[in-house]
């Protein structure tokens, strides 16, 4: 009987320790499930953020390409205008037409680099320039006369400068998103993997 009582006592102690282990395992399992749920939510959140930042980066790349294309088009238009002015200057025999073309060239130079001082003019040239300011003096019979106004040229140059500015802004924003994407991925892998 004493032996049976000892066996029962040992089994009670064993059952008690097994229950404690089982309870501890349940607590550990619950904690792991909560951690797995948190990690799944964090993973989903990071994937959404990564997807959004990737979409924004793709949009910025497309916008950058569009802006670069527009900028190249404007640069080509400016080059064509300059070539046309140069060609008109070489082929023109009319002095008033060449004065107008020289004024257009100097205007282009001033618009491109406003820091440069204007060229020194004689009194006669200055009077002609002041009388012709804002006007195009063109020989109507000259087949090589410019087919654009000074205002159009100004508008093209202003638009080109705006496009360059926007392109720089887009490139900066794109680099910010690239760095942010790297930081998110770096943070995720070093803290949860």
From TrEMBL:
Protein's GO biological process: cilium assembly
Annotated coiled-coil segments of the chain: 1-84, 153-180
Residues in the signal sequence: none
A family per Pfam: RILP
Domain RH2: 145-193
Keyword Transferase recorded: no
Alphabetical keyword list: Coiled coil
Cellular component, GO annotation: ciliary basal body; cytoplasm
PROSITE patterns (UniProt xref): RH2
GO molecular function: dynein light intermediate chain binding; protein dimerization activity; small GTPase binding
Keyword Lyase: no
Protein name: RILP-like protein 1, variant 2
Originating species: Schistosoma haematobium
Gene encoding the protein: RILPL1_2
């Amino acid at each position: 009987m004493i032996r049976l009582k000892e066996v029962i006592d040992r089994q009670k102690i064993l059952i008690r320790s097994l229950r404690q282990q089982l309870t501890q395992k349940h607590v550990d399992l619950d904690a792991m499930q909560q951690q797995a749920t948190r990690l799944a939510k964090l993973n989903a959140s990071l994937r959404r953020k990564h997807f959004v930042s990737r979409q924004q980066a793709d949009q910025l790349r497309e916008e950058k390409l569009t802006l670069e294309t527009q900028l190249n088009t404007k640069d080509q238009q400016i080059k064509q205008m300059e070539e046309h002015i140069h060609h008109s200057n070489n082929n023109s025999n009319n002095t008033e037409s060449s004065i107008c073309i020289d004024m257009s060239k100097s205007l282009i130079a001033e618009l491109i680099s406003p820091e440069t001082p204007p060229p020194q003019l004689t009194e006669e040239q200055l009077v002609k320039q002041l009388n012709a300011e804002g006007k195009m003096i063109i020989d109507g019979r000259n087949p090589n006369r410019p087919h654009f106004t000074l205002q159009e040229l100004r508008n093209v140059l202003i638009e080109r400068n705006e496009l360059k500015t926007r392109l720089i802004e887009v490139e900066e924003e794109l680099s910010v998103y690239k760095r942010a994407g790297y930081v998110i991925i770096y943070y995720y892998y070093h803290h949860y993997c």
